[in-house]
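Example (one chain per record):
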Amino acid sequence: MTDSDHSLDIAISGMSCASCVSAVESALRKLPEVESASVNLATEKAHIELKEGRSLQTQTILKAVTDAGYGAELLTHTQSLKHHDDESANGIRIVMAVLLSTPLIIPMLFSLSGGHWNLPVWVQWLLATPVQFYLGAGFYTSAWKAIKNRTGNMDLLVAIGTSAAYLLSIYMMSQGHEHLYFEASSVVITLVLLGKWLEKRAKRQTTEAIRALQKLRPETARVRRLDAELDIPLQEVMIDDVVIIRPGERIPVDAIVIDGSSHVDESMMTGESEPVNKTVGNKVIGGAVNIDGMLLVKTMAVGAESTLSRIIRLVEDAQTAKPEIQRLVDKVSAVFVPVVIVIALITLLAWGLYSANWEQAILNAVAVLVIACPCALGLATPTAIMAGTGVAARHGVLIKDAKALELAHSITQVVFDKTGTLTEGKPVLLAYNAIDGDDLLLLELAASIEQNSLHPLAKAVVNQLQSLGKSPSIATDVRDVAGRGLHGKINNKIIYLGNKHWMSELDVYIDPHNVAALAYKNAGNTISWVAQGDGETSPTLLGMLAFGDQIKESSKKAISALHDKEVKTLLLTGDNSTSAARVAEMI
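Predicted structure:
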């Protein structure tokens, strides 16, 4: 299969340190069609750019990686982030290593208190051998691959170092010595296994942001083909397919509405807390939630071209990109392992020839090999990049690349979005004013009508009533009127709740000089009206509800901290200027 794009991503398995990164990148760059290759140890992914006008068989790329001694698998733009490690299996191996290694170090701990006690040498050998060759088998496999490819990695250092300590103990055991070094090889393997397990857990946690974005994408879509409704996998949806979206469902694709009307929650894309009314001709975004109406939409973008996929791609690119400091680390790591091995040999010969104590010389060489593992060099920077971009994405901040993150310390101006950034992004009921003064009754009527609605404003009303220890009454024949509001019957009276436009259509008189309503409207808040009728005459206005978005407690502190650092702050919002000015004044 030939990749039609100029770039592709592959998942890499089997890497243990920055030297592995260098080996994989080198193998990929040797391919004549490859313009550039960037491998990230933390994400275990490689991003490959092909030369202009060139194509390359995917299998050729995968073979280049496997020939270098590592696993490779093609990733598509719509594929979920995969984790190749089995944490439970690795956890069992660590537990086994700890159980076998602990008895070996007990005599050493005993000696620290002035005592003297050793396990029988054959018991030490029985405990150390499975740790060395069964639980530590992965180190030997990885080391052999490195040797075959004339490269070095962390596992090669561990394999050489622990094998030296193990073989020295075997030799000393054959000579009748009781003081052996099986505990050194076993403990090192146990600690490195534990370190690898912790690294994988850390990497899993830093990719939570991407997985959270991917959860916004449904796995299936309900499409209409040949007058039949079919539930098909999302990847099988094609451009111009007609997709049916029921109330409460997440929209699977970017599309345009061809029939129906509904309110859609697009807060995950725009940050706006209030649902947007969608009717025929309006565009909807994949990942948004259809709230209260049936929609028939025509697919406009699928797969990698969808808005949500592009956002996921943006976050992944930021986590995969290498800052300048990481490129320097990779260059150092490429020669790090050979240099460490040379230093270990020098240590061995220097101690052995100078002191004639070859036992101590071997132990010192082992110490050099084990302590010098370059895993920290290879993981520190990419993990920091992943953690930073991941936390930012969870808070709605998308960082385009690692360079932008590196330059963040020199920022002189910050532009803030309003809703969901400086404010909570969730509407709350600010006021409920009844014409006759019975505010609680007005709230009960509104909550009774809206108790089964998915609309955020409805939830705010119900939450307010419940916070007062009250429960909504039973309402019957409740119906939603798209773009206007809803109505239902309570005690044989029809209760209407909706916007001012609908009230005008119902011929409900609203005092244009209503002081409370004008005050809340001028402050940029949303006003809903409640009316009561009998179905025969024009309904009578009962009162108004005012909704708003509260400012986060942390916003003032954040703005103040930026001002203290002489950073200029600006507010950018799609809301009305009155609402924007009110928020700006408050913070």
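Caption: Confidence is low (pLDDT under 50) at residues 77-85.
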